Amino acid sequence: CVLCGRTDDCPKKYGEKRTFVEYNVTVHYYCLLMSSGIWQRGEEGEGVDGFLFTDIRKEVNRAAKLKCNICRKKGASIGCVSPKCKRSYHFPCGIQKECIFQFMENFRSYCWEHRPVQKIPHKERKGTSQCTICLDLVEQVPTYSVLRGPCCKNAWFHRECLQYQALSAGIFFFRCTVCNNMDKFQKEMLRMGIHIPEKDASWELEENAYQELLQCYQHCDIKRCLCKKGRDYNEPDSKWEIKRCQYCGSRGTHVACSSLKSWEQNWECLECRSIFAKSGNYSRQRKRSLAASDKADGTTCLLEEPSPKCPRQSPGTPRSFLHSPKRMCPNNSLPCSHLELPASNRVTMSLSPMMSNRKWSLRKRCLVKEGREASNILKALKLQITTKTTRLNINAENIWNSALKGFRQRSFSPTNTIEIKFINCKNTLKTDTSAASKHYFFHLLMLHLQNSSLFEGCSAKNLSLDFQAVRENLYFEAGKMIAVSLVHGGPSPGFFSKTLFNCLVYGIENVKPTLEDVADADVAETIKMIKYANSLSSLTSTVHDCYEFLAAAGCLRPLKALCDKDKLVDDILNYHVIKRIISPLESFRQGLKTLGVLEKMQAHPDKFFSILCYKPERLSAETLCDLFTIHSSSDVNKVGGIDFWMGYLQDVESGESVVTLEDILLFTTGSFSIPPVGFDPEPTVKFLCIKYPVGNRLLNCLELPITETYETFKKKMDFTIRNALRVERE
Length: 730
What we know:
Elements: H1 11-14, E1 17-20, E2 25-28, H2 29-34, H3 53-63, E3 78-79, E4 88-89, H4 91-96, E5 100-101, E6 109-110, E7 128-130, E8 137-139, E9 146-148, E10 156-158, H5 159-173, H6 183-191, H7 202-205, E11 242-244, E12 252-254, H8 270-279, H9 353-356, H10 362-382, E13 389-394, H11 399-408, E14 417-422, H12 434-450, E15 455-456, E16 462-463, H13 467-471, H14 474-487, H15 498-506, H16 521-531, H17 536-545, H18 547-553, H19 564-577, H20 582-592, H21 597-603, H22 605-613, H23 621-627, E17 629-631, H24 634-639, H25 641-653, H26 661-669, E18 684-688, E19 694-696, E20 701-705, H27 710-729
Parallel strand pairs: 13-14, 17-18, 18-20
Antiparallel strand pairs: 1-2, 3-4, 5-6, 7-8, 9-10, 11-12, 15-16, 19-20
Helix pairs in contact: 10-22, 12-14, 14-20, 16-19, 21-22, 23-25, 26-27
C-alpha cells in the first residue's frame, strides 16, 4: 500500500486492497479514506471511488515528510483532529494502538489519548455480562474493545464482534441485537469507530442462498433403524412417519425407532440436546418448541397447550374457579371503582347487613385498593389514545400469528384506537360491538401468552429461554402486547412471578431468586441436593455429578467447607433464573415501555404488583353493585325495582340462579372481566318499561324491565341472559 507501506490483504481490517497497474498504485481503501489531506474530487467512477490518482500522489508526497508516532517510519498520512495534538500515524498502526477512526462526515481520526469514550455511571456497572453477539462474557467496563449499546443498559458487545456484524449486515440491517433500535445505535457505533458500509446485507447478496430451506429432510438417523423398507421410507400418521429435530431440522427418526408416542410432536437430536445441556437448559424433558409442528396452513405459532412443567392437580386438590364450567374464560381483573356522579344521578345502595358486615381479609382489601389506584394511573395513560383507528383482522383459532401480523403492520401505532374484526372463526361474537370484540381479542391474547413457551413455571411465571423467540424478537412483541392491553382496556396478565416483576421494576442486580423460580425439574433437584447436603463429602460428590452443568453456568467454585454450599446455590439460582435470560428480559422490558407502562410500573410498583402478579378475586355481588351506577325514578322505587336488582345479585352469588355474575358482566359489556383501566363509558343500570332485559354494549348499559314481583324479574333475567350467551357461544 502506497500509504501505509504494508502488504497485508485483510479487507475486514484495512478495507479492500486495490492495485492499478497503469498508475503504479496499490492502496488499502481504509488508508485512503482516513488520510487527512485528500478529498473525493472526482465522480464515483473516477480514480479510486472518486479519489483522483493525482490527488493520491500528492497525499503520498505529503505523508512522506511525516513520521509515524507509533512505528517511527515515514509515510504517516493520518493525523489526530484534536486541537494542539500533533500525532500522525499509519492506519494499521492506529488500529494496533487503539485509535478511533470515524467513518462518517469528515472521516475524523483520534489518537489513543484523545479518542471518544463512553461515559457510564459507576452504579450501572454490574460485573460481567454476555456479549449479545458471540455470547462470551465481557466485563461491564467501557474500554476500546468493549462497547455498550446506547439504547439498552444491559447490551454489551466486543468491538470486534460489532465490526464483523456491521460488515455483514450493512447499513440497512445493522441494529441493536437486543431491542432492534437502528438510528440511535448506528449513530453511537459510528462515533466509536465502527465502520458500517453502505451496502445490502451479505446474506441478501448470495445467489440461491436459501435453496436448502425448500428441501424437507426425510431420513432416519437412529443407529439401529427398525424400518424394513429403509431409512428413507416415510409413511405419515403411522409408526414409520419420520420426525425431524425440532431445533435444527437436519436430523430425523422414525416414530417407532425412537419409541415416540403418537401424540408427541417434538423430538431433539443428540447434537442439539448436548448443545442445550451445555447452554444451561439442564433438562431431559422434552420442552415445547415455539413453532407449532406441521400446522395445516404452514404457519408458526406459539403452542397453546398447558405448559408441561406445570404439575397436574391431584384428584383431591380444589380447582380454581377459573376452570369452572360456568366460566367462559380465565382472566378476570381487579374491580375498578366508578367515578363519582352527582347525587341527583346516582342512587347510593348498600347490600344486606350480612353482606356489608362480611369481613374481607387484609390481603384482599389491599389488592382491591392497589387495583383501584392502578386503574387511575392507567386512565391517565389512556389519554394518549387518539381517535385515529387501526383495524386488526384476527383469526381466533390462530390468535398469536394474526396478532403478531397486526402489531407489526406499518400502519399500527399503540396510540391509535384499535378495532378488531374476527375472520374465519366459528366463535366470532356476531352481535358484539368493536369494544366487545377488543375485550375478547385481548383476553385470548393474554391467555395465549400465559401458556406460550416465552414463559415457564406453573401459576407464577418467569421468562424462559427460547432461542427462536430471541431471533424473531418475540419477547419485545410480548411486552408490547401486554402494555397495549393494559392501556386499551384489555385484561392484565396476572401470571408474573415476584422475581420477574422485581427484575422489571428494580433491576436484576437488586433481585435474589428463590428455588420456587426454577421451573426445570432437573435443575431444581440438583439445587436441592446441594442445598440439603449434610456433609462436605456428599456436597463434593453432588458437585462432581453435575460438573458439566456447573461449568457451563460458570458456577464452579472451590468448596472448602460445608457452608460454601449457600453461595453455590445462590450462584446457580442467579444464573438459571436471571443471567441466562438477560437478552429476553431486556427485549421484554423494551416492549413494556410502550405507552409509558414500564415507567409507571417503576414509579408505582405497589400499585401494579397486584394486577400483574395476582389473578383477581372472583366477582361478588358487592363488586357489581359498586361497578354499576343506577339511574332510577320514583316510579321504580315504588315497585321495588332497585330491591329486585340487589336481591337478584345476591341470589346469583349464592348459586340460586342459572347464570353467574360473570355472565351478567359479559351480557352488559361484552367483557369477561373488569379490565384494570376500567370501562369507558362506565356501566349503568336503567329501569324501563320493556318486556325483557337488554344489554347495550355500546354504552355498557343494562336496561332492566319493571315488574310487579321479584319472581317475574328473576325469571326474565335468567331466561334472557342464559339464552343470549348460549347463542353467542354456539
